[in-house]
Sequence to fold (136 residues):
Amino acid sequence: MAASLYIVVEGEDPGYDTFVNGRALARNEDALERLAVNLGSRPLIEFFSADENSMALLIEEGAGDPTLLNKLPPPQWFPARTGLETVLTLLEHLAMEPAALGSESEMVREELQEYATVLRKAVERNLRWHLSVSWR
Fold:
């Protein structure tokens, strides 16, 4: 199964497309976490929150314990501006050090640019967000 990190924006319909593939970000999550910490920024994974929908999908795919679904805490929501700050910090570093993540750098950079677009729109609309994970 391949993991994907995707953005969940608070509310039923934020009024714009929030889709970002997120597979390159998931593959490089450990390296991105170290990079963010080294740059003095909050790691993307700290914006993760399990919500009922993503956990239900996980259970449907045969991973996870169905009894835990009823015990999930409410999802955590974060200001979009804080996520955007992390994304922009990572993008700035990758612009200065294009090979920082080896052969994955370009794919990660492209997905981070898509994250920046989604998060800018969330900032404009004063919406909160979190990261979620999909395994397919």
